[in-house]
Amino acid sequence: MEATLTAAEAATGFSRESVEALSAAKQEPTWVRDARLAAWATYESLPFPQRTDEEWRRTDIRGLKLDRLTPFAGLSGEAPSPESVLAGFRDGGISDESARAGVNIQSDASAILTDVHADLAGQGVIFTDLGTAMAEHGDLVRKYFMTEAVPASFGKFEALHAALWQSGSFLYVPKGVSVELPFRSFAVASAPESSIFTHTLVVLEEGAEAFVVDAFGSETQENQALASTIVELNLGKGSQLRYVQVQDWGRHAWNFMTERAILGNDATLNSLHVTLGSKFTKNSIGSHLRGQNALAEMLGIFFADGDQFFDNHTWQLHEAPYATSDLEFKGALKDNARSVYSGLIKVEEGAQKTDAYQQNRNLVLSRTARADTIPNLEIRANDVRCTHGATVSQVVPEHVFYLQARGIPYTEAQKLIVEGFFRPVIDRIPVEEIQGFLESAIARKVGI
């Protein structure tokens, strides 16, 4: 049971004192508190990203006002009901209760519900909120939590996350266990001018299989808020993971998301990232193919409107021979929105017979929207097949006219064109309800 936090403790801002207050309120083991404080020291030692840094060259974070935000909220008072939280995720059936292996719900800084099928627990599967996992499965969590995939020293915002993470989900699937139904995690933020830090940690042992869906969302508020997410995916030999992330924060949120997957021999990752919400999003998504014959499929869809800014950086890091990575990110922009995509295929020396593909396509729906795309290759082996491509294009007026000439209204015609643009990626998602959710989201963004 989490302790009540006083108003004074919650208002201390981003400081060592707020880290200590958060850990005390959650009644954490000593090793967790010490790890937080070590991460805070790392945070203080690292400089903020600068426009001179290559990864941040086209990304301006001067509008982020951390000094005006509280580091956490929602640890005191009555928590919202799980039903009220899930109500915001009904669209597209993404929260269908009959199609879950387990569910985890985070509201602001509090974990309010975790449930997993009893038969899975009997097979050794662990699915719970991260705080409970720290307390009940400390040795296992400690081995993987921000140690290798995304260490606290990874960057300024990652160190801040390591110091002030609030909740999230932990999934462990033992050797040879296969789970077809998805494990679903939901995170919502409602407290004004506050921060939400949510963390996903997945560990699949040899031959294990799982499906994980993360959904993030909030209503739009007047003042700025911060959302920080870290996703760590650890795939053992011959394991298979399908990971889907849907981000729909309110238009007041500044969102920073870092994901790293580590793939062992013969492991397979199929991932999808959907970016719809927030005012500002900075995504860093990487797959480390450390095992032979590993396969990473990385799909992405984003649709920005208004004055939204989306920045996607991807890494396909080949560290072993005979591995394959296939990346396809597609984005649409309208109004004054802007996007940045930068992707790197990096093949280490000795990673022969690598097969890597990277594609970024952008559809611009207004004269004032802008998309920048920068694909990159860094090859240190001489027997590989690596290809990449990128395009930025506007809607062809003749295509709209063709549809209008057949009695289709302009907005509907534009929706059909945008949906057709995204269709090759949507068709690669073998989950009907996710496809339906995306089709509905595209319609909303277009204006139908």
Protein architecture, described:
23% of the residues lie in helices and 38% in strands. Helix 2 (16-25) packs antiparallel against helix 3 (30-45) and helix 3 (30-45) packs antiparallel against helix 8 (156-164). It folds into 2 domains: 7-278, no CATH class; 397-448. Strands 2-1-5-7-9-11-13-15-17-19 form a 10-stranded mixed beta sheet. Strands 3-4-6-8-10-12-14-16-18 form a 9-stranded mixed beta sheet. It is globular. Strand 1 (102-107) and strand 2 (110-116) form a beta hairpin. It has 448 residues and is α/β, with parallel strands linked by helices. It has helices spanning 7-10, 16-25, 30-45, 82-86, 118-122, 130-136, 138-144, 156-164, 397-404, 410-426, 432-446; strands at residues 102-107, 110-116, 126-129, 167-173, 183-188, 195-204, 209-217, 225-235, 240-248, 253-263, 268-275, 280-289, 295-304, 309-318, 324-333, 338-347, 355-364, 370-379, 385-394.
